[in-house]
Amino acid sequence: METPPICNYEGSDYQRSFWEQGGRAYEDAVEALALRRLLPPEGGQWLLEIGAGAGRNTPRYHGYQRIVLLDYSRTQLQQAQERLGQDGRYLYVAGDAYRLPFVSGFFDAATMIRTLHHMVEPRRVLEEARRILRPRGVFILEFANKCNLKAILRYLLRRQVWSPFTPEPVEFAPLNFDFHPATVRTWLNLSGFAVERQLTVSHFRLGLFKRLLPLGLLVKLDGLAQWTGDWWQLSPSVFVRARARGETPAASTFAFRCPACGHEPLADTPPEITCPECGRTYAVEDGIYDFRLR
Prior knowledge:
Elements: H1 14-20, H2 25-38, E1 44-50, E2 64-71, H3 74-84, E3 90-94, E4 107-112, H4 122-131, E5 133-144, H5 149-156, E6 170-173, E7 176-178, H6 181-190, E8 193-201, H7 207-212, H8 215-226, E9 237-244, E10 272-274, E11 281-285, E12 288-290
Helix pairs in contact: 2-8
């Protein structure tokens, strides 16, 4: 099975240029609020962060003993190491979301924030997220909403050609997609998830609001509007909490899986891991496991 095109942030200073210096304090704060509301208060042992980047959200997963950061970009993971360190709580893995290099049925929870919008085959990614979760495991997904209020107004005023009401994704830039909320819910259901809660996020993303209103007020207003997510989804960003359905087998210990042939488990033998089934080798260097398929 071929891997679709991948949006690679290798060498990017995205964390600094977009988040820290790009005027995104409002977006960061309301996303942190949404995560606090959706994460189970009881936490768990192992959480997988799909598309972790430089670890912006990683410190927010307080209730989990071990966190695995997965990103396709090795340099993003290096930046995450600089922010978070290598104290044993965090495990850094380079790989792609279409072929998660982990045994099936192991993780208590997984998150995927600001990542699905780069996926050419989102349904395939959601099926992989379901595969690595235990029965009733928690999956928190964020996606870019094509049916947001700004897009609706632009369409009605004939300022854009694509309809925000149709179910198919829209690629507004290369490897950047917006999705219809109903379509995402259908994909989740078909992939083995039951949607529990939806929050609408970043209602006041317009620069005018951010210039005129204090950050604290914007966050409070957004926090109130987030609760409408189960009724309608008109914001540019939507957060969903879903549970893994079914009684699929659960793995008892953490282990890797060969992303090339699917053999599991793989023996953890740094500085190199070899798959006994297909013979592929994967390097472990400077604390980063590299399972990317070239």
